[in-house]
Design goal:
22 strands; 671 residues
Length: 671
């Protein structure tokens, strides 16, 4: 992953573009060298000697120490500021770098004029300390920014560069770049998975927390998909390659995080405007300072020092950093919690949400059938009924049958193998389990069958709740009724509660019948239900809520959700869904967990708070510092030197940087 500061040119104002091409190392090395050169400049300065009452040794050429070293510091240490200022001026966007460059250039040109015979005191020591402190401030700032970008580097480290390829039973170590789609790779216990792929042989538990944020390992076997960068558990896997390099999910996540950290938010535009305004104010105050002190006949060197201090202290540095740093950190926190922000404005809007529309199938529900209730004959336990039913249905491909089998697996029930399995079209199935013949099916199977009253009532109740009732029958007697439905995710209950707690209305959108939709809505306590909605009308329902003046988030995972995601104020794509939905969403959830929606609101509100705090701090300190720099308090003996101005300016920047880091402590669940 390239360093974030190397891929902007000066033309695209993305918050840290004033650091285009800059690096932590560059500022560090420039700072140390300038510091070493500054020491003799300060030591041989007449002003400092007079202040501290000592006399520096003189020798042939000692008079040149200040001008020569001062010039080197200006050209070597100051060049980074001068180049960036040139970029700002070319873009007609004068800002921080323009002010710093103006300040050091005024000090330099004035000092050269003094060396050439102009009657005044040179400002070499002020110039040297100013450049050195500026470099220190920028070094600290760059460290802050690059630590916020650290998430991308961390993600990049998760991808192994070597893989073990299998061909004709032989294994060979190859670099991941050499793998092609369809290759088989061996993933040993404890290794990181090198590619996105499908397990062809073996089973294991995989730790996917770096992708989904879920700490529990996920058990996977044949035909299951694995994701590059995740960690294999105890089992050995043979995996067929589906995606390598840039095609892997992890690379996709890295791209999204990088785009989000560069995408501009409204707060950033506000900060940029404030920074430009401050630049204008600073130059005006500097000119005013020059005129005012000259009118009261102050010495010219005193006046120039005041002008330089004004220019330095007003640098909108903290302003320039206030928002980008919060943006970078919030994006990183989000990514660590499985929330990928594709568009900053999406996250910014989330704090204003007052309605969330969930697509039902696959978002609030699993999108798969499960047994949601079992009623049995008194001689039969629920577990026993499910054990036999799973044994019978294991032979069937029908979604309801598969739902019964999955329900047994999720309860860790070992089911027996069935014999003589056959489908009875339109009715159900017949099979023999442990030498007893059973039938399974819906009400059409009940001809001539004795059904106890409580089982009949259970079936009717299932019908009322829009669930499918499946009977288990043997020897013309009904032994159990299974209520089968698209199971609601456990997390959905918590998600709806958390949204209600934040004062957000919850709506549900589905193509299912009104009865099915109402049954789910009743269980989840959802406020508004849109049922029997055709895919092409989903976007209309979003507009309906928007027409009531609501800020609406749409949460969906399917291809037919894409128009609705794009129409909503915030489109939230469930990442387990399709690429199309991901492209349409402002925010992508890596895991299919609806509880992440209230977390987004929490992150948005915390991010906003930090931005406002930082903007106030960055702008507010100038209100006090500028008049002091201009010398308003001179009559009380209070004067700021340029170096002190640089210290204050750098300190304000560092405070903003530290404040942004506190965002990492935010509890997204808002407990």
């Amino acid at each position: 992953m390239t360093d974030d500061h190397s891929h902007h040119d000066h033309g695209d104002h993305e918050g840290h573009d004033k650091h285009a091409g800059h690096s932590v190392e560059m500022f560090r090395s420039k700072f140390w060298l300038c510091l070493v050169l500054t020491v003799p400049v300060v030591f041989w300065s007449d002003h400092i000697q007079m202040l501290f009452g000592y006399t520096a040794p003189t020798f042939m050429g000692s008079a040149l120490i200040e001008p020569v070293l001062g010039t080197i510091i200006y050209l070597y240490g100051g060049m980074v500021f001068l180049k960036s200022a040139w970029g700002e001026l070319k873009d007609r966007m004068p800002g921080m770098m323009t002010l710093i460059s103006l300040a050091i250039t005024v000090a330099f040109v004035f000092s050269v004029a003094v060396e050439l015979g102009f009657e005044a005191s040179a400002l070499w020591w002020e110039l040297a300390t100013l450049v050195t402190i500026m470099l220190l401030g920028h070094w600290i700032e760059m460290r802050s920014i690059s630590s916020a970008q650290g998430a991308l580097k961390e993600l990049a480290k998760l991808l192994p560069d070597k893989a073990t390829r299998l061909s004709d039973g032989e294994t060979e170590e190859v670099s991941v770049d050499e793998l092609a789609e369809g290759d088989l790779v061996l993933v040993r216990p404890g290794d990181r998975v090198p590619v996105d792929g499908v397990i062809r042989e073996g089973k294991s538990n995989l730790n996917e927390s770096m992708i989904t944020g879920e700490s529990e390992p996920v058990s996977k076997g044949e035909k299951d998909e694995v994701i590059a960068g995740t960690i294999n558990g105890q089992g050995s896997l043979r995996v067929e390659v589906v995606g390598v390099g840039d095609e892997t999910q992890l690379s996709g996540i890295m791209r999204l995080v990088a785009e989000a950290q560069e995408s501009k938010s409204r707060s950033q535009l506000l900060a940029d405007r404030a920074a430009q305004l401050l630049t204008g104010v600073a130059i005006s105050v500097a000119l005013l300072t020059l005129v005012a002190w000259q009118l009261v006949d102050a010495p010219i060197d005193f006046t120039v020092v005041r002008v330089v201090t004004v220019l330095v202290i007003a640098c909108p540095h903290a302003l320039g950093l206030a928002v980008p740093l919060v943006v970078a950190i919030s994006t990183t926190i989000g990514a660590g919690s499985g929330l990928l922000v594709r568009d900053r404005r999406g996250l910014e809007e989330a704090r204003n949400l007052n309605a969330v529309i969930f697509d039902k199938t696959g978002t609030l529900t699993l999108g798969e059938f499960r047994v949601v209730a079992i009623d049995t004959d008194e001689n039969f336990s629920e577990e026993e009924a499910l054990r036999i039913a799973a044994g019978i249905e294991a032979e069937s491909e029908h979604p309801i049958a598969q739902g019964i089998v999955k329900s047994a697996k999720e309860r860790d029930i070992d089911y027996p193998a069935a014999r003589d399995f056959q489908n009875i079209t339109g009715k159900g199935v017949v099979a023999t389990v442990e030498d007893i013949e059973y039938q399974m099916g819906g009400p059409s199977m009940l001809e001539g069958v004795d059904v106890p009253d409580h089982l009949r009532r259970a079936a009717e109740e299932a019908g009322d709740n829009a669930q499918t009732a499946i009977y288990l029958i043997s020897e013309a007697k009904a032994l159990a009724v299974f209520a089968v439905a698209d199971a609601i995710r456990e997390e959905s209950f918590e998600a709806v509660r958390a949204l209600h707690k934040r004062g957000i209305e919850v709506a549900m959108l589905t193509g299912d019948s009104q009865a099915v939709a109402d049954a789910v809505a009743k269980q989840l306590e959802i406020d508004t239900v849109f049922a029997e909605v055709l895919p092409e009308d989903k976007a209309e329902k979003v507009k309906e809520l928007q027409a009531q003046g609501k800020t609406v988030a749409m949460v969906g995972d399917g291809v037919n959700d894409a128009p609705a995601l794009a129409t909503s104020d915030i489109g939230i794509a469930i990442g387990a869904g399709t690429d199309v939905a991901v492209e349409a969403g402002h925010i992508v959830l890596v895991r299919s967990d609806p509880r992440d929606i209230p977390r987004i609101v929490g992150l948005s509100r915390a991010t906003r708070r930090k931005m406002i705090q930082n903007l106030w701090w960055a702008a507010g300190y100038n209100i006090f510092a500028l008049p002091l720099a201009a010398g308003v308090a001179y009559t009380w003996g209070i004067l700021l030197s340029p170096a002190m101005g640089a210290v204050l300016m750098s300190a304000s920047t560092v405070i903003v940087a530290i404040n942004a880091q506190f965002l990492r402590r935010v509890d997204l669940d808002g407990h």
